[in-house]
Amino acid sequence: MNLSKKWKGIFGGVVFALATLTSVSASADLAEEMRSIGRNATVASKTDNSQEFVTALTALSGAAEKAKGYTPYSLKDKAKDSAEIKDYQHGLQELIDTAAEGVKQAQQGDLAKAKEQVAKLLEIRNEYHKKYK
């Protein structure tokens, strides 16, 4: 298939535009997941209701799991198997594991101890946010 220079230019521009839109959309999706993590950590830290606590940390874990599928802008040029990408995903997995521990403790009736996990969540979030925002 022979395309004229004009059509090659148009086609190339369309491909570039679609790639840019996809990148912007992925960044927006990641930002939304990060906001969800923050909102749910706040809810969990402020509630005195075990069920609300469990719901918040479950939602936080879901957002962290989704965020693992996106690459932060600061790492956009890194290979999927790079040390930085693996570290970013490790940080999200730490959030998920810590939230799971908090849920377990809340379900066992120890909301005070479960809330200690929220403090750990915030430490993890702050550590990795500095690295990869």
Radius of gyration: 20 Å
The strand count comes to: 0
Q: How would the global form be characterised?
A: elongated
Helix content: over 70%
- Give the SSE order as H and E letters: HHHH
The SS-based structural class is mainly alpha
The N- to C-terminal Cα distance equals 44 Å
Total helical segments:
4
What is the quaternary state of this protein? Answer: single chain
Largest sheet: none
Poorly predicted residue ranges: 17-24
Mean model confidence by pLDDT: 86
Assess the beta-strand content as a share of residues: under 5%
Write up what this structure looks like.
- Helix content is 80%, strand content 0%.
- The protein has four helices and no strands.
- The protein has helices at 5-46, 50-67, 83-107, 111-132.
- Helix 1 (5-46) packs antiparallel against helix 2 (50-67).
- The chain is elongated.
- The chain starts with a helix and ends with a helix.
- The model is unreliable at 17-24 (pLDDT under 50).
Key phrases:
4 helices, 133 residues, mainly alpha, single chain
Q: SSE layout and pairings?
A:
Blueprint: H1 5-46, H2 50-67, H3 83-107, H4 111-132
Helix pairs in contact: 1-2, 2-3, 3-4
How would you concisely characterize the structure shown here?
By secondary structure, this protein is an all-alpha fold.
